[in-house]
Amino acid sequence: MSFRTNFILQCLSSMAWAGMNWGLFKIIYVHTGEIGRGTGWHENEFFIFLGTIWVINSLIQTVFMANAEEFSELIRTGGLDFALLKPIDTQFLISFPRINWSQVPNGILGILLIIHSMQKLMQEKELYFSVFSVPVFVFYVICGAMVMYSVMICLASTSIWFGRNQNLYDFWFYITNFYRYPMEIYQRNGIGMALWGTFTFLIPILVVSNIPARILAQPLGTPWKAWEWGLAGYAVLGSVWSLWASRWVFRRALMSYRSASS
Questions:
Q1: C or N: which end of the chain has fewer Cβ atoms within 10 Å?
Q2: Confidence class of residue 115 from pLDDT cuts 50, 70 and 90?
Q3: Confidence of residue 224 (pLDDT cuts 50, 70, 90)
């Protein structure tokens, strides 16, 4: 934020991306009533989903993305040597050195989109809420952020083996491209089922992006079906599993580190 013009331009750029993303789906819903036949993801339900994705992305890009991108530079320049010598957990140290505030506007836009879409949706049908709905939504957003952080740490850790990983953001974009849509659109024969299985059970990014949106939008009706409750439970387990896996990958990568001077 010391360079004000650059900071403002970054904020405007991230907001412009969100606006174009919203405009694309607005055009799509001019031609169709729902994304995926029989999925229940009509326009307002889907925009609640989209707002949830913006919130998770904003949280990840604000707190973790810039730090993960700098990890390869620490390896190349030898800065990781000094991080390893400090009396604090190394993964924690490289994960939280600075915050990229220019990505916060995306999260604010996501919250506004969720509120606006919910107001319109409540005019169309009855939604079922309790005092726990918002806290549970926040909890699952945090679960989603934990999974995406774990994926990012695993990708960043490969820099130790490769020497330098300048394609981190590209890999991140390719993977996260799948979790930006409801999981029902993948539940078709062939490659769709393979993608659904991979990104639901192996890398659970579909679960943690879908569950928070369902809590507010309830696209498949109320009460939830048994398999939806199962997915909600698996989202918590998937978050814990992802954190453990990323921790294991990071520590294994550190075992291969030979310092910049070797």
A1: C
A2: very high
A3: low
71 inside domain: yes
Instruction: Tell me, yes or no, whether 262 lies in a domain.
Output: no
Angle at the Cα of 65 from the Cα atoms of 68 and 96, rounded to 5 degrees:
70
Query: Which H/E stretch holds residue 32?
Result: none
For 190-202, the pLDDT digits (tens) are 788 888 888 888 8
Convert 77-115 to b/e letters by CB count within 10 Å (16 or more is b).
eeebeeeeeeeeebbebbbeeeebebbbbbbebbeebbe
Task: Domain of residue 118: give its range.
Answer: 4-255
Residue 36: strand, helix, or coil: coil
Longest dimension (CA), the chain: 66
Q: What does the alpha-carbon distance between residue 179 and residue 84 come to, in Å, rounded to a whole number?
A: 34
pLDDT at position 38, please? 74
